[in-house]
Specification:
Number of domains: 2
Radius of gyration: 19 Å
CATH class of the largest domain: Mainly Beta
Order of helices and strands: HEEEEEEEEEEHEEEEEEEEE
CATH topology of the largest domain: Immunoglobulin-like
Number of strands: 19
Strand content: over 45%
Helix content: under 10%
Distance between the termini: 29 Å
CATH superfamily of the largest domain: Thiol:disulfide interchange protein DsbD, N-terminal domain
CATH architecture of the largest domain: Sandwich
């Protein structure tokens, strides 16, 4: 329930924010960085978000509390799609709630697919994020850049950021049972140690179905992740196993696992 309340409050703030000058507008600055062109015409670029000291923003799934980031690329030209490649995030706990965050500076690699492969891409859009310190507030940041086919920019920085993106891995086995509020799912399989304290995030592919904080159980090479899936409106629901997405996060490495058997 606390997650539903947090999202409702965040939405209310986001809707009311444009009506007033945002006194927290200087807590995050964003810009698009040039990268390079792939042989097929796709561009690899990056979004750089610089945060004020002590402030943080959120991963694509924010956790128990927070505002999920969203992009609107209307106004762009020669653009088919933009695919973010999310680097390994941090886990933050406060007041019995867990958030999945970035601090200081986020360099988010972007795979940009043009409509016409060897023509310039004029990228224009708006980013909506939440930023937090003692309070959490929504921010809207306008973005614009032109990417030329032969232009190269922050290649080394972007490659380093891509090295921290969770590695794609095979699906795990999953077992289900009825829970107090929804469906308890246990995902398990062989996973090499990721370094330090291991954490997990579960996404369902449905904005109305959220996952409780996962419990991780390691027995040698086998890792089991247990969570309860709960529908925001209550009642029964169907589980789409192929839509489940598990991200495992360690200090040295992270894995991105889509679906379960």
């Amino acid at each position: 329930m606390k997650r539903i309340v947090s999202y409702a409050l965040a939405t209310l703030l986001a809707l009311s924010a444009p009506l007033l000058a945002n006194p927290y507008a200087d807590k995050a600055q964003a810009r698009l960085l040039q990268g390079w062109a792939e042989p097929d015409g796709q561009r690899i670029a990056a979004l750089e978000i610089t945060l004020a000291p002590g402030w943080h923003t959120y991963w694509r799934a924010p956790g128990d509390a927070g505002i999920p980031p969203s992009f609107d690329w209307h106004g762009s030209r020669n653009l088919a799609r933009v695919t973010p490649e999310w680097p390994r995030p941090e886990i933050y706990r406060s007041n019995d709630m867990r958030s999945i965050i970035y601090t200081e500076r986020l360099l988010l690699p972007l795979r940009i697919t043009p409509q016409a492969a060897h023509r310039p891409i004029h990228l224009k859009g708006r980013l909506e994020i939440g930023v937090c310190k003692d309070i959490c507030v929504p921010l809207q940041l306008d973005l614009a850049a032109t990417f030329l086919p032969k232009q190269r920019g922050a290649v080394t920085q972007i490659k380093r950021a891509r090295e921290t993106v969770p590695t794609r891995s095979n699906g795990l086995r999953c077992q289900t049972e009825a829970g107090a509020r929804g469906i308890i799912v246990a995902l398990s399989g062989p996973v090499a140690p990721l370094g330090g304290r291991e954490e997990a995030a579960v996404e369902t592919g449905d904005p109305l179905i959220w996952a409780t904080e996962p419990e991780l159980i390691r027995k040698g090479p086998v890792l089991t992740v247990r969570t309860e899936l709960v529908h925001a409106l209550g009642g029964a629901f169907a589980l789409n196993r192929s839509a489940l997405r598990l991200t495992l996060i360690g200090e040295r490495h992270a894995l991105d696992i889509q679906g379960c058997d």
